[in-house]
Amino acid sequence: MRYFVTGVAGQLGHDVMNELAKRGIEGVGTDLKDVYSGVMDGTPVTTMPYVGMDITDAEAVERTIRAANVDGVIHCAAWTAVDKAEELPELVHKINAVGTENIAKVCEELDIPMMYFSTDYVFNGNGTRPWEPDDAYEPLGVYGKTKAEGEVAVKEHVKKFFILRIAWVFGVNGKNFIKTMLNLAKTHDHLRVVNDQIGTPTYTYDLARLVVDMIGTDKYGIYHVTNEGDYISWYDFAKAIFETAGVTNMTVDPVSSEEYGAAAKRPYNSRMNRSKIVENGFTPLPDWRDALARYVAILKENEENA
Predict the structure, then answer these.
(1) Which of 9, 5, 47 is nearest to 29 (CA)?
(2) Measured between alpha carbons, how far is 58 from 287 in angstroms, rounded to an integer?
(3) What's the CA dihedral at 15, 20, 148, 195 to 10 degrees?
(4) What's the sign of the alpha-carbon dihedral 31, 282, 205, 272?
(5) Which of 8, 59, 63, 74 is least crowded, fewest Cβ atoms below 10 Å from its Cβ?
(6) CA–CA dist 181, 236 (Å, integer)
(7) Between 204-215 and 11-22, two packed helices, what is the crossing angle to 10 degrees?
(8) Pair 200, 226: CB distance under 8 Å
(9) Which CATH class is domain 2-175+201-227+272-285?
(10) Residue 156, pLDDT score
């Protein structure tokens, strides 16, 4: 088998390429760059084919995917900077909606499966019950709206589709909340973190395993995927990060989303019903505390070896 993976310079795309390599499956990686030289957490992804491609260029997308001669597309590329999205709505729409539609059309022409990664931001972010895969769209902000538009494009153009909604993502190859907290701990001994946004994190290393398990099946549809474990706030997560990393000189105070005042509205409710994973015979992701411990250990090792 041979898969086309977009966004390999990001957290998820990088880990998907490494997971494919571990299993002896070939991945053709792509991103905006003409050359990608990322090597992290073990397997050097540069041992597999790589092509530069702009997903917003429909002709380039069709030409590149056709030439790659693949059995499916794992579409990890996206605009994910939520606050900045509010300033650049046209660009974000072009990447998240138009770019995704370009890929979807080619997948349908070639009759190959497509996997698209979405977000809990496609919902309104209110309430306390976990979101179900078939809940109605009420997207939050530019980011949520454009990711929902990407979902619609996939469902309209691709018969063999997987849509995986994820939240609170962290991985070795990129920026994320854990890295931000640990970097701030080097210069601060007091932080304020929001405590009224509730969900569970998603470790891209664990997610990549499920992705590769799933893409080779015909169990198509919409899935909600995060690491297992109890629902927490960002405040709870920050405290767990410092405890796991052995940071003892940090005081974390809870603050409301309104007091914090981010540019883009965040979901208060990021709880998602993940039961479809098990119902369709897949292994769920490990508990988020286990994922956090493994991730922090990798960060420490990389820092020591730097």
Answers:
(1) 5
(2) 40
(3) -30
(4) positive
(5) 59
(6) 12
(7) 60
(8) yes
(9) alpha beta
(10) 97
Ramachandran sector of residue 221 (left: φ over 0; alpha: ψ -120 to 50; beta: rest)? left
Identify the H or E element spanning 164: strand 161-166
Please spell the DSSP secondary structure of 240-282, one letter per residue.
Answer: HHHHHHT--S-EEEEE-HHHH--SSPPPSB--B--HHHHHTTP
52 neighbors 30 (Cβ within 8 angstroms): yes
- From CA 10, how far away is CA 77, in angstroms rounded? 8
Q: What is the DSSP string of 89-150?
A: HHHHHIIIIIHHHHHHHHHHHHT--EEEEEEGGGS---SSSPBPTTPPP---HHHHHHHHHH
**Predicted pLDDT of residue 229:** 97
* Dihedral sign from CA coordinates of 237, 12, 212, 159: positive
- Residue 9: DSSP 8-state: T
CB 254 within 8 A of CB 221: no
- Rounded to 5 degrees, φ, ψ at 34 are -70, -30
pLDDT tens per residue, range 122-168? 999 999 999 999 999 999 999 999 999 999 999 999 999 999 999 99
As a whole number of angstroms, the distance between CA 76 and CA 16 comes to 9
Asked whether the beta carbons of 137 and 122 are under 8 A apart, the reply is yes
Structure tokens at 268: 């208060």
Are the CB atoms for 74 and 14 separated by under 8 Å?
Answer: no
Q: pLDDT tens digit string along 167-212?
A: 999 999 889 999 999 999 999 999 999 999 999 999 999 999 999 9
Give CA–CA dist 147/78, Å, rounded.
Answer: 9
Contact criterion met (CB below 8 Å) for 188 and 250: yes
Positions marked catalytic: 143
Q: How many residues appear in the chain?
A: 306
CA 163 centroid distance within chain: 12
Structure tokens at 205: 């290393």
d(CA 199, CA 218): 29
